[in-house]
Structure of DUF1989 domain-containing protein:
Amino acid sequence: MSDRTFAPRSAKRCYVRPKDADVDRELYERLSLSGWNNVLKKLTVPARGGLAWELKAGQTCRIVTAYGPQVGDLNIWNLHDFRERFYSGKTRAIHRGHLTTSDRLWSSFPYLRPLATITQDSLHQYGVDEDGCGLHDVIGTRCDPYTHKLMTGQMGKITCHNNLIKAVKPWNLHESDIHDVFNVFMCTGIDKHTHDYVIKGSPAQKGDYIELLAETDLLVALSACPQGDCSSPCGQPVPESSCFPLDVYVGQPDQDLSQEWIRSKF
Ligand SMILES: [Zn+2]
């Protein structure tokens, strides 16, 4: 059999670019500042645990690595219709494999609209590193007991998948409602030569943050990944001492600004 050769083809970028993918950066910056100046509540996602909370349209939610480098696995639903939920794959197609300020979290079919907009990212300067890796991943998935069993022969008990299930139980949601996550603070990429999915330890330090603004009323669930900063080899146990809680600040921008934001949507 002869070796096949392929003619070079040009790459086509951004095949999906809805008009709603572009945000008014200046307005969202003001909303973020105003929300941060009026924090309604502070929550803490326990180390290796999960938590869910409601976020009303127009409110901000800042997730902070307050105690050390820590990856978080995030799920989002429309609070009034749980069938509408975050769609990781389409978000990746619309933006890229790693999200930052002004990118949006898009919802599942048939809704396909922004559920939230990223208003702050203290790590945005990380960009794309020498290995092609970036931060805040929508390429990968979440740690779960089933994959763990495939790798080790044993069911993992503490995983993001389980944490998310437990966190949303009070809203009567179940395992089937858990979906592909937005991996905040996670450093990942696709190897240029092998196309393997690669993971690096998160470069987040104490005090780094990413912030979302709810485009509609939301239920948000977050797991502080039991893999910590995800620097340990997959399937290997991670010491509890290298897993940290994540702090969450829910902010309410002032009324005039919120009205301006509502008008901007129509
Ligand atoms: Zn995890």
